[in-house]
Amino acid sequence: MRTGTETTGERLTQIGLIALTGAVLIFLVTPILIIVPLSFSSGSFFYYPLPGLSLRWYEDFFSSSFWLQSLENSLIVGISATVLATTLGTLAALGIWRARFPAQALVLALLISPMVVPVIIVAVGVYFAFAPLGLNNGYLGLILAHTTLGAPFVVITVLATLSNFDRTLIRAAESLGAARITTFRRVTLPLILPGVASGAVFAFAASFDEVVVALLMAGPGQRTLPRQMFAGINDNISLTIAAAATMLIAISLVLMIAVGWLRRRSARMVQVGG
User: Within the chain, how many helices (H) and strands (E) appear?
Assistant: First the structure.
């Protein structure tokens, strides 16, 4: 908020920050602004100006067995990995929150390490770990690998929600004779549920958009949508890729809106719980 006492240097700094922020946003959004109109082109090549508007590439997507199978694979892997990541991540976050031990920071760092380690390193490590077990070229190995990538998001979001959680609510429930599982189900879970749901959304997005691990772990029958797009770029460039990319962008926007809504809901529930 401006107070009317800002110096010329402060005003110039604010203008510079606004201009820099705008330039960064334009840089990030420009690829989206370019690819989305191309998905509605009536032509057959990636060029502007568009010769006309058409839904032919969306029709091609939904009439192609390759694209539909890849979409189905992405949903199977994404939903399965989300369920596992949400369950394991929530339990891990609760354990770290309730326990007090010297290596707590180290354990947390290990849990969230897949978020900071380059994906290619995770992919190679998972491949060499799963290959002797026969888990590559199948759904199970890919689901477990995506669970590894998604669980850290759940841990972070649930811990963020628990940071504002009033522990006296748990002690009050236990003092009234409630078992731990009952306390968790009736007291803890309802209050942290928005945070858990936010983590699940992030985990699903991480799995649904992932391509590097899928390239190493998925067989021909488990091609996910991003992997099919990658293969299409290398083999046969078609504007169907632009249609698929546009749908991925739309799904990402929906997930972002859902996360924003869940965060506001989580804040309100924690305030009520407190």
Answer: 12, 0
* 3-class SS of residue 53: strand
Delineate the domains of the chain, giving CATH numbers in brackets.
67-235+250-273 (1.10.3720.10)
Cα angle 89, 93, 97 (rounded to 5 degrees) comes to 175
Do residues 161 and 97 lie in contact, with contact meaning Cβ atoms separated by under 8 Å?
Answer: no
Percent of the chain clearing pLDDT 70 (strictly above): 92
Residue 65 contacts residue 178 (beta carbons within 8 Å): no
Segment 90-100, tens digit of pLDDT: 988 888 888 77
Per-residue pLDDT tens for 92-131? 888 888 877 777 788 888 888 888 888 888 888 888 888 8
Phi-psi region of 134 (alpha: psi -120 to 50; beta: other; left: phi over 0): left
Alpha-helical regions (H) of 99-188 = 104-116, 119-130, 139-162, 168-175, 180-183
